[in-house]
Write a sequence for this structure.
């Protein structure tokens, strides 16, 4: 469904005018921003370890690899949640779920929490969004601030719009609009999520000989995929990974077409690109094949790439732990310098990552994870977990990741602690029954409890 909101959505946020004038931006007659266009791409179920540039043996992401070679690529970026609405709300507001209050997949972001689109609209930007999966946006209040919002209606056969059709819609609209600046464009692609249905041509492209005992051994050794999840039937495992990887190549191809389309339209120069995953997906890891109920690395560790067509973001691979909540202040710092980011009101809890682009250090900060409100398991999920070595508890689940350690804090169930340095696949729970608790467990519990209490005190009213 398409919707053009004109200026009404912008006017709903009263702080906008104050922000605009206080930052001295283009719309108020101030200085011009560093970029004419900001393009943010979010991709559902995008696992970091399936990108070719991260060592994956299949050619899944040649375009994203090229984009990363020309900009900053974060190797330890974390989504706030493995649930789409919670994660997107953090990405688009700069606040954690406990702060923005959207902790239920059926909830709605409160109007008092400004979105990236609202902030940029108040800064003088045209704002447009083209999304493949509407339930993540309109019902959750994440469409706020977009003067043009394009999403598919409910589809009878498939739950989401394919990437090529979403890119088609975006390029068609851009062609109609011309080159007036500045512009904020959000593109959300849902294709790597189930059901997998990439065009068959991509199946052949991604396999290219990587589909035999050596590949299966790689998945077990490097990705921690328990072959027993597939009942040791390699044909089943192969089918799932072939389909998922084909989806990635399909999405990657469409993102290249988006960039080429911008170039044809004369809109490529002066553009800032951000590409990241909304969350990951199980594919059998920890005996889970979807996303949402657990917070293991394959579910919440996502690619995050920031690049600019003028080369102002120098190529660099960054291994600091960062969070989606850092994206909003980073974008504003890039647009108008550090002062612009510091002047955001209300101030997001994330921070600008710009110093990392030049190799300067930032004080290490932990990333916080939140499963959100508990949801009952489906019959299918119950069957999936019958063989799982660790069953997720039914209550709230929070997590914290620092430079080495990761704690999963289950309310009413046993916690989990992992040393990501020696056990990156989270196969050995250091808090398993009978094991002596390392001192890191209590330290992380204290940090998490302090953060949760501080964040909860500022939670906006639930809607």
């Amino acid at each position: 469904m398409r919707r053009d909101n004109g200026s009404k959505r912008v006017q709903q946020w009263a702080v906008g005018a104050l922000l605009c004038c206080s930052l001295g931006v283009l719309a108020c007659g101030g200085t011009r921003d560093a970029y004419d266009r900001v393009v943010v791409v979010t991709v559902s179920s995008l696992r970091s370890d399936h990108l070719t540039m991260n060592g994956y043996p299949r050619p899944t992401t040649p375009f994203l690899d090229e984009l990363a070679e020309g900009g900053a690529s974060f190797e330890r970026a974390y989504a706030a949640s493995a649930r789409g609405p919670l994660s997107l709300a953090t990405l688009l507001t700069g606040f954690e779920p406990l702060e923005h209050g959207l902790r239920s997949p059926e909830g709605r972001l409160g109007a008092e929490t400004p979105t990236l689109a609202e902030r940029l609209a108040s800064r003088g930007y045209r704002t447009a969004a083209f999304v493949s999966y509407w339930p993540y946006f309109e019902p959750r209040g994440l469409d706020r601030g977009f003067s043009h919002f394009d999403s598919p209606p409910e589809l009878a056969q498939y739950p989401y719009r394919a990437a090529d059709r979403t890119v088609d819609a975006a390029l068609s609209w851009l062609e109609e609009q011309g080159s007036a600046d500045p512009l904020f464009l959000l593109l959300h692609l849902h294709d790597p999520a189930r059901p997998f249905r990439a065009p068959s041509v991509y199946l052949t492209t991604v396999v290219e000989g990587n589909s035999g005992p050596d590949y299966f051994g790689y998945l077990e050794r490097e990705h921690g995929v328990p072959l027993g999840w597939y009942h040791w039937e390699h044909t089943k495992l192969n089918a799932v990974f072939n389909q998922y990887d084909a989806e990635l190549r399909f999405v990657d191809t469409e993102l290249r077409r988006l960039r080429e389309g911008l170039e044809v339209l004369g809109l490529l120069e002066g553009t800032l690109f951000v590409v990241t995953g909304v969350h990951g997906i199980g594919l059998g890891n920890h005996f889970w094949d979807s996303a949402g109920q657990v917070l293991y690395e394959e579910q919440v560790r996502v690619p995050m790439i920031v690049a600019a067509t003028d080369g102002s973001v120098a190529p660099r691979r960054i291994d600091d732990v960062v969070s989606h909540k850092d994206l909003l202040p980073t974008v504003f710092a890039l647009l108008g310098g550090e002062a612009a980011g510091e002047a955001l009101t209300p101030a997001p809890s994330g921070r600008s990552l710009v110093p990392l682009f030049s190799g300067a250090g930032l004080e290490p900060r932990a990333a916080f994870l939140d499963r959100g409100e508990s949801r009952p398991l489906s019959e299918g999920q119950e069957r999936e977990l019958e063989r799982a070595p660790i069953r997720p508890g039914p209550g709230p689940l929070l997590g914290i990741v620092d430079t080495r350690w990761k704690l999963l804090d289950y309310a009413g169930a046993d916690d989990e602690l992992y040393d990501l340095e020696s056990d990156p696949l989270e196969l050995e729970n250091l808090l398993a029954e009978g094991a002596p608790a390392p001192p890191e467990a209590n330290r992380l519990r204290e940090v998490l409890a302090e953060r949760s209490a501080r964040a909860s005190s500022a939670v906006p009213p639930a809607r």
Q: What stands out?
A: The longest strand covers residues 71-78. The longest helix spans residues 234-264.
